[in-house]
Design brief:
The protein is mainly alpha-helical. The protein has one domain. It is 82% helix and 0% strand.
């Protein structure tokens, strides 16, 4: 597998991170760069770590994880998205999603990186090298997370619309997409 192929896989894997980041940027009120950087480190780190875990397991536990990984992602994103929706409808949007909390970052990072575990299993089964693909996957997710947050902030400023409800719906839709993709094939 060539570098270009790995880059395309990395972009595909990072789309969930990017979508969650846009939703976070839309819901956030001027996120600090430190917070955005921490989010990018979590997302990129987990996207890079999961293929390593998949590669190391080599498929021995992949079938066990694949049986429920989509449910974990769906439930985590639905809970976080539901909280965003609830807070936006209650009129109290001072804390739409608290990405400064390590627990929230961990939940979002796990929910958006489960597919990368399967990619790692595939890399192991094809006996591909691991370091470069994992690094590329992590870097692409890191960059797209930062870009997503600031794109979301830009949308919020330009549209002058309260996107807390939209951000919550987007997170739930991402969870549904993950669930449907896994259940359908």
């Amino acid at each position: 597998m060539g570098i270009f192929d790995i880059f395309i896989i990395a972009v595909a894997l990072a789309m969930d991170c990017f979508s969650v980041s846009v939703a976070t940027g839309v819901a956030a009120d001027r996120p600090r760069f430190r917070t955005v950087l921490l989010m990018a480190l979590f997302f990129g780190g987990f996207q890079g770590l999961m293929p390593v875990l998949g590669w190391l397991t080599g498929g021995s536990v992949a079938h066990l994880i694949q049986a429920f990984d989509h449910w974990v992602a769906f439930v985590l994103l639905a809970i976080i998205g539901g909280g965003m929706i609830r807070e936006s409808l209650s009129g109290d949007e001072s804390k739409p999603i608290d990405v400064t909390r390590i627990k929230t970052l961990f939940e979002l990072a796990v929910a958006t990186s489960i597919d990368a575990l399967v990619v790692g299993v595939d890399l192991g089964l094809m006996q591909n090298a691991l370091f470069v693909p994992a690094l590329i996957i992590a870097a692409v997710s890191f960059v797209l997370t930062i870009a997503g947050v600031y794109l979301g902030v830009y949308f919020k400023r330009v549209c002058k619309f309260n996107f807390g409800l939209v951000g919550g719906i987007v997170l739930i839709c991402i969870g549904l997409k993950i669930l449907i993709e896994h259940l359908m094939g």
